[in-house]
Structures are given as C-alpha cells and as structure tokens.
Amino acid sequence: MAMRPAVLAALAAGTFATDPTCTTGIAARDVCCAAHCGACGGAGCASRPGGSAECCTGSIEASGRSCATHGPPCVMGLAVVTVGHEAVFEVAREYVSFNLDTVRLSHVNYTDALVGLAAALTPAHLRVGGTQGDYMVYTGFGEENRSCAALPSPMTTHRCQELTVARWEDLLGFAEDIGATLVFGLSDMYGRPAKTKPEKLLCTAHHCPPFDASNMKELVSWTAAHRPTAPIYGWELGNELNTCLNGFAGAEAQARDLAGLRGVAPSAHKVIGPDTHSFTEFSPSGRAWLDRFIATAKAAGSVVDAYTFHMYSLGNGPALDPNNLDASFLSPASLDQSHIGGKNVVDLVRKHHGTGAGAREVWAGETAAANNGGQTGVTDTYIDGFWYLDQLGGLAVAGVSVFQRQELVCAGGYPLIEEATAANGSSVLTPLPDYYVALLHKRLMGTTVLKAVSSNADLRVYAHCAAAGPPGAVAFAVLNLRNASTEVRFAAEGAPPAAREEYILTAGAKAEPRYPNRLQSKQVLLNGKLLQTAGARPPAISGKAVPAGAAPLAMPPTSYGFVVLPDAKVAACM
C-alpha cells in the first residue's frame, strides 16, 4: 500500500515526532521498527541498517520509547515503564511512618487490635504532635505544681490540657508494643501568650515573648531518669509556630529554643523541627522564614538533626468538592504540587548543610491530602490513595527521608484506621484503603530510590529497590489516572521485559450511595479480592505471579498498586 503524501513529506523532512499506529515504520505485533530496517525483528535483525536499536523487537521494547510520544523505533498501544540502574536517594527504613494527634492522648484506646494493626506497619516512627501540643502542661514530672489551674502569666487556660505520668507511661508502652520509635512534640509556648485562631503575631522586628523551658525540661529529664530504655527517637518543640512566631525574629527564637532542647535531651535522642505550617514550602515568605531558622540552628552548633515541614498539598479538606474530586486526586498538575513543595525544603536544607558530612535529613513531619481534618467520605476513601501513593513516590525522589502520615487512627477525616464504637461500647477498628497502601509500600518498596520513567503522563510510576527478593530486584509504585484500562510493560533500562509480581488495588463499593464518585469507597480489592482484617492482624497478602514473555499488565481504570520485578538485575540493587 502506498504511503500518503503527507506521511512521505514528513519522513523526507525528518519531522514525524509521533506515530501511534506505526504508519511510518514496520510493525511486528506491538513493536514498530524503523522503515529502513526492511523487516521488524527476527533472525539477523541486529545486522540490518539501524542495528539492534532500530530493528530488533527486544531492544525496542527495552528502550521505553512509546509510539504515543515518539516516532519509530517505538512500542505501540501501551505505556512503557523503565527504571535506571543508578540510585537517586536513600530513604530511612522508617520512611512510611504515622502520627497520633496530641488532641487524642487523653482518650486514645490502645487495644490489642490497634497494637496488631500498627505493628504491621513497623519499623516506623510514631510521631505524637499537632496544634494541641502547644497547649499541653506536663503534670507530675517535677517538684513544681504544674496544672492548667496554675499557669504562669501571660498564659491562659485556652485549650489547656494536662499530660500526666500515667498517660505518658501508656504512650511509651504502646510504642514499645508495636515496635515503633517515638517522636514526641513538646510545647514551645509555655510562658508565652496562647495561640489563637486566627493567629496573632507575637513578635516585633527584633523580639518575641520568651519561652519558659522549665516544664519541657521536667518531662525530658523525668523520662531520661525513669524510662532510660524507652523507645524514644527524638523530640520536637513547637507545632506550626511560624505564623505566631513571625518574621526573622520568630525564626531565630524557635531555633534558639531547639538549641536549648539539645542541651537537655540525652545525646541519643534526636532534636527535630521546626514543623512549619503547610503553606511554608509554597510561599516565598514562608521559605524565607525557614531559611533563617536553618541558618540560626546551624550557627548554634547544628542543633537540629532532622528538619521537618508539614504538607497538605490539596488544600482545605472541608472545601474539597465531592462532585469534582478528579480535579484534585487524578490531576497530574495537582499531584505535582507536593513534589515541588518537598524539593523546595530539601533545597533549602542542602543549601546550608550540603549532602556530604554534616548533611541533615528532611522529613514530611505531618502530612495528609488536605488540612483542617480532611473530609470524611473523601480523604478516608480509596480516592485518597492516589494522593498518598503519589506523594510517597515523589517525596522520596525529591530527597525526603521520612514521611509521617497524619494520622494512624481516628473516627473520621484522614485516618489509616477508622475507629467506631459498637453498641456495647467497645472499639471497632477498620483499616481503610490508605492503610493497605502503607502496608504494601512497607513490604515491597525498599530504601534505595531509583529513577523510573513512564511513556504515558497519566500512568505515574516510582521505583525503589525491592524490600525483599534476589539481588537486583526492583519494585514499582504505579498509578493509572485515566478512566480507561492501560496496558503497561515494565523493564529495567537496557533489558527485556522480565517476570513480574502484581499487587493491583481497586475500589470496592461506594461507602454511601449518595457519594457522587465511585472511588469514594472504604473497601479495597487486591488483584480482585476484597481485603479484610482477621482479628488484630491484617490479612495475608500475596501478589499475582506473571512469567517473562507474558502479555503486558492491563492496569484497570483509575487504579493504583505495585509491581515487583524479581529478576530485573538493576545494578544499584545488586
């Protein structure tokens, strides 16, 4: 069949950029070889004009060139995912970690079921923090009579709560029981005027109200003396104070407060902060505040071991529109915001501390899709997993070492585990879809981060060395943002497609019939089978084994999951 004149002209001019149906090449199944090869694939393909790279189907498949974005040689009708052989970053083994909000300390129920479900997500840091942390008074840890009824001026009883020795012991016991290390957020507002909403600016150009460190010292010193083997990883001081401790004076004040904490805490305990507001990484003024904080902390003796930022990249939870959720959770541009914010913070820390000796970790110290408690029916359903899995992937590539998910358990909003009360008053716990995202990431994705490339912008991929398996094994996190099935072929750079294990998560039934989006489900299916807990432990989880040479993965519409290549032989993973 003669080629159309437009095609001949494009070939002559060398301007044919894409060729989804191999109009300008020679097709062999789903591979499109260059026209000058004369034939596509088969014996002797490497000796034809263009060589193996343009004429051999295996080499073209391994190249990752999709006909949707390239001309021949390319692969038609599917997304091609490749992974490079060099590591781009190394996250902490506790990368997937979780939080308890301080406001729940007075009533959290540490049941056997909660212990079992949380233990399955370790190793991890259990971070206890939040706005309430800066209204806490530590009672019974020293000789002073500390209580909400006996606060020093200019403090007020606004939102004041007391943390007793008994409650502290309960928390330490829970961390021990689940095998987690504790990061505890201390109040940096003791002796200062209480935070209000909207927040009042407390600092002038050169002065902030002084911090009274005596109550903080009592808790830290009591713990060192009475619970020296408690699983404490580190201490934070202050939660989202970069508005009320405003300007450069505020940044310097909080850095000095953390230097004081460094002088009190045992040397084995890390000092972590400043836990900035979620707007900080996206705002020039916020980044300027953080820049001054880092400079001051470094000048004080590099007193901060890990720099933390908070992130709620999809905005105000109650304002999310249930009739337009795809614009937030399935939009590449929307999902990219978290990567941009994370890189902004990493770049600031590396500006001051570099990447070699003396480098400091960067943590997403508190993060969920949307702030102000999220939105029940949205941020506690399957659709939230697109944000969660994508941000896990993007922040690791950006250089973030730890990802503290807000939060482990609560009755609504954005929990990993939903808590309800039965008729007899007992606690009923239900792991939500994001719990299984965390569980599978923990089990499948190792700590070495790789560079993965997808030929399809709506097929987002991230890769780590696999957490288990033979040397060279690699694991992918993959998200199909399209409302259509997408064929996907996975391979290591320069190698043919290998055997794979599939762990594909899809949405179950809508949580409520009135919900407009079918992805608003609190159920999740793994390879088509509903995941349900059995008592205090998550269910047994296994992947679907697919041999080398099999058909590409048919990724279901609007779905996400993981794919492991045990025989990828990626050099960084050997």
Question: Helices and strands in order, then pairings?
Answer:
Blueprint (H helix, E strand, L loop, with lengths): L4 H9 L12 E3 L2 E3 L17 H5 L1 H7 L10 E2 L3 E12 L5 E6 L10 H8 L5 E5 L6 E4 L21 E4 H14 L2 E6 L27 H13 L5 E6 L9 H18 L5 E7 L7 H16 L6 E6 L14 H4 L2 H22 L7 E7 L16 H15 L3 E4 L3 E2 L6 E5 L5 E5 L1 H12 E10 L4 E8 L7 E7 L5 E7 L7 E8 L16 E3 L2 E2 L13 E3 L6 E3 L3 E7 L9
Parallel strand pairs: 4-21, 5-6, 5-14, 6-9, 7-8, 9-10, 10-11, 11-12, 12-13, 13-14, 15-16
Antiparallel strand pairs: 1-2, 2-3, 4-18, 16-17, 18-19, 19-20, 20-27, 21-26, 22-23, 22-25, 22-27, 23-24
Protein described:
This protein is α/β, with parallel strands linked by helices. The chain has helices at 5-13, 51-55, 57-63, 112-119, 165-178, 214-226, 247-264, 284-299, 326-329, 332-353, 384-398, 433-444; strands at residues 26-28, 31-33, 74-75, 79-90, 96-101, 125-129, 136-139, 161-164, 181-186, 232-237, 270-276, 306-311, 361-367, 402-405, 409-410, 417-421, 427-431, 445-454, 459-466, 474-480, 486-492, 500-507, 524-526, 529-530, 544-546, 553-555, 559-565. The strands form 5 sheets. Strands 4, 18, 19, 20, 21, 22, 23, 24, 25, 26 and 27 form an 11-stranded mixed β-sheet that branches. An 8-stranded parallel β-barrel has the order 5-6-9-10-11-12-13-14, surrounded by 6 helices. Helix 7 links the parallel strand 10 and strand 11 (270-276). The radius of gyration is 26 Å and the shape is elongated.
